[in-house]
């Protein structure tokens, strides 16, 4: 049953430095705005440059966290050991044919990072393309970004972030020599080879806005690179990629719900970019090439759940778009891949994905699905990098089934299992139960819920539960396998994923219903799921630990304000909780592009009132809150560290309970926490130890 986790004496108290902002005739009082460093952009790259008063406060909060969680240190070590025991240390991927080679990734035993390798396609000696461990050895943090081999397979372009700020450095590896060329290019967001000597890349500016596309000739001085495209609209970010056909590089510029694509022929990389269809309010599209046509996945013509059209490469504007896969309400077309002879797409119905395909030139009525039987599962589409092939790869998992890699022959329909992820410490899927149920929200909406528990867990209302949610940007939460999650489930937890509005599990309308003034639907859905779990005897009030990160942290913060009585505890990972101040600040990296989600509170009083009505920071109340664990990262460009820091400071000054409230800030990394496959387990162990402690769960895993 629940166990008290009370505040310790000497909790840090942030100094109050009152400030007032005047917006739409409203005075916004903020005692903790000073926690935003005036040099935040500099500190993001070099965290040691954070002002002393701010750094001292964050360090004090970290020390408080360490003291409060000291009695879980042994438990955390056991959790890490368990989770590590489920990882095959000398693991390797299924080789992928690409040109004259078969490329693969493998881990040496005990290694944090992989080696990227290749061997001749028809067999031969392995060659190391990139040893990530060697590159990461001198860094406290290391995250590999993009890596693409040149069309002649002689050079690897690769990027890395060494502090969590997501400012990536581009390097060029001579694969045969095993060394990089003697220069680098800083602050690269994406890249695409045109030919064996020419590469396009996108640079981010000081505000972390990817807005300039350059053309680089291998071996030349980057200072001489040609600026090909500049995006002036701060709402739009730019990315480049090479189409599978190899005939074009695409420049895609857009925000969450609107974009525009230009193409450059790879046989004439100095040509000016040519637009497919100019930006139009609310129009989204993505492009593949198939012969003399572009295949375009789009929401044009009120195709809310998307459709696929065909257009001539010579005249690809919207006036020439002809439906290939018509729009069908409730069937979300999630992704599209085009081979020379095949069109493949992933679609989602009733929160479950499936893959469909049809031969080029054949009517859509002849399309065939790849079918699966479990109640809830996850699919990953992994098409070949080669254009002229009949082979398609996908991954499958479910909450009970570890990931499996299949190669599928589109001509014969033969499905070949190439790999099942090994759980070295053992895993018997028959010992676990996956259930898909629905919960009725405040307005009658039926919210899908994916539930995982051990077969022998009593469903009498006594089980602790970890309830996870996200619900923003149309991101759908997959019903996928998680080896880490078993450390809770084996201790008697019910694990539940709330597929709330804001995602696209039930189609585009499921997402649209939680934008702008509809955002509270996300929070009501989550509360309805919790109540349905209680009604179904899966758990009970104050037995539920809630968890969400980033925009999922907004969800956590909102439901804490709305229904604090339901929860045993809350884990808010890098939470987006200072929503009003952030969306009012158009100097922040992501804000302009966010207005399509939340509204523009600078221009619109209605948007201002909507956001102010649910923003967790602005709605902290003098009421009891459950125990809470909050995380942040100084280098985080997505949710800046001061959002969780301010929120914790205001909560501690306002709430009426004596429950623990902890802020743990990673002083040397960003949004995604620790890097490395084993080091990252420590973050999971901290969260799980907190959940185990606040629910009073016996520390003894079954299985």
TrEMBL record:
GO molecular function, one term: serine-type endopeptidase activity
Domain Peptidase S9A N-terminal: 12-419
Enzyme class: hydrolase
Keyword Hydrolase in record: yes
Keyword field: Hydrolase, Protease, Serine protease
All copies of domain Peptidase S9 prolyl oligopeptidase catalytic, residue ranges: 481-696
GO biological process: one example: proteolysis
Enzyme Commission designation: 3.4.21.83
Family matches, as InterPro entries: AB_hydrolase_fold, Pept_S9A_N, Peptidase_S9_cat, Peptidase_S9A, Serine_Peptidase_S9A
PANTHER family documented for this protein: PROLYL ENDOPEPTIDASE-LIKE, PROTEASE FAMILY S9A OLIGOPEPTIDASE
Family recorded in the similarity comment: Belongs to the peptidase S9A family.
Record-given protein name: Oligopeptidase B
């Amino acid at each position: 049953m629940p166990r008290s986790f009370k505040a310790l004496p000497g909790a840090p108290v942030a100094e109050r430095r009152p400030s007032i902002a005047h917006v739409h005739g409203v005075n916004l009082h903020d005692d903790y705005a000073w926690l935003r460093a005036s040099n935040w952009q500099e500190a993001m790259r070099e965290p040691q440059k954070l002002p002393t008063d701010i750094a001292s406060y964050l360090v004090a909060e970290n020390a408080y966290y360490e003291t409060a969680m000291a009695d879980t240190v042994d438990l955390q070590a056991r959790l890490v050991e368990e989770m590590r025991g489920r990882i095959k240390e000398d693991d390797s991927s299924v080789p992928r044919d690409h040109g004259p080679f078969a490329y693969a990734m493998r881990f040496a035993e005990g290694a944090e990072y992989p080696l990227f390798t290749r061997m001749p396609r028809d067999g031969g000696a392995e060659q190391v393309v990139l040893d990530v461990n060697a590159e990461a050895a001198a860094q406290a943090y290391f995250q590999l970004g993009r890596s693409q081999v040149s069309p002649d397979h002689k050079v690897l372009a690769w990027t890395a972030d060494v502090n969590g700020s997501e400012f990536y450095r581009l390097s060029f590896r001579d694969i045969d020599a095993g060394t990089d060329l003697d220069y680098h290019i800083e602050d690269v967001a994406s890249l695409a080879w045109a030919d064996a000597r020419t590469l396009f890349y996108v640079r981010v500016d000081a505000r972390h806005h990817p807005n300039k596309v350059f053309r680089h000739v291998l071996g030349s001085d980057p200072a001489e690179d040609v600026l090909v495209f500049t995006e002036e609209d701060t709402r739009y970010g730019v990315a480049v990629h090479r189409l599978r056909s190899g005939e074009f590089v695409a420049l895609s510029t857009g925000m969450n719900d609107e974009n525009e694509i230009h193409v450059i022929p790879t046989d004439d990389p100095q040509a000016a970019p040519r637009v497919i269809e100019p930006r139009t309010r609310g129009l989204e599209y993505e492009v593949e090439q198939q012969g003399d046509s572009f295949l375009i996945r789009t929401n044009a013509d009120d195709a809310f759940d998307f459709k696929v059209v065909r257009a001539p490469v010579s005249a690809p504007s919207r006036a020439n778009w002809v439906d290939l896969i018509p729009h069908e309400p409730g069937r979300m077309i999630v992704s599209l891949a085009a081979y020379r002879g095949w069109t493949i797409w992933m679609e989602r119905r009733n929160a479950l994905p499936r893959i469909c395909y049809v031969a080029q030139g054949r009517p859509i009525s002849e399309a065939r699905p790849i079918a699966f039987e479990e109640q809830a599962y996850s699919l990953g589409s992994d098409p070949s990098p080669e254009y002229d092939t009949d082979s398609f790869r996908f991954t499958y998992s479910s909450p009970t089934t570890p990931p499996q890699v299949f190669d599928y022959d589109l001509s014969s329909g033969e499905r070949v299992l190439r790999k099942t992820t090994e759980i070295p410490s053992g895993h018997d899927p028959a010992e676990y139960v996956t259930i898909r149920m629905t919960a009725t929200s405040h307005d009658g909406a039926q919210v899908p819920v994916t539930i995982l528990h051990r077969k022998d867990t009593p469903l009498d209302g006594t089980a602790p539960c970890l309830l996870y949610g996200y619900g923003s940007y149309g991101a759908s939460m997959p019903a996928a396998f998680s080896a880490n999650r078993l450390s809770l489930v084996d201790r008697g937890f019910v694990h539940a994923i709330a597929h709330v509005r804001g995602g696209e599990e039930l189609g585009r309308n499921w997402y649209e219903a939680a934008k702008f003034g509809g955002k509270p639907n996300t929070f009501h859905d989550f509360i309805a799921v919790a109540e349905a779990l209680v009604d179904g005897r899966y758990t009970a009030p104050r037995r539920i630990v809630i968890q969400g990160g980033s925009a999922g942290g907004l969800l956590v913060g909102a439901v804490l304000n709305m229904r604090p009585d339901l929860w045993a505890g809350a884990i808010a990972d890098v939470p987006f909780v200072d929503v009003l101040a952030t969306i009012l600040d158009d100097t922040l990296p992501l804000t302009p592009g966010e207005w399509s989600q939340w509204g523009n509170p600078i221009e619109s009083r209605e948007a201002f009132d909507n956001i102010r009505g649910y923003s967790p920071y602005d709605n902290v109340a003098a009421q009891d809150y459950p125990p809470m664990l909050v995380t942040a990262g100084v280098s985080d460009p997505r949710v800046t560290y001061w959002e969780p820091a301010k929120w914790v400071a205001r909560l501690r000054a306002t709430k009426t309970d004596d429950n623990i409230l902890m802020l743990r800030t990673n002083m040397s990394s960003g949004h995604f926490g620790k890097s490395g496959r084993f080091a990252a387990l420590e973050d999971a162990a901290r969260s799980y130890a907190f959940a185990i402690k606040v629910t009073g769960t016996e520390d003894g895993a079954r299985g």
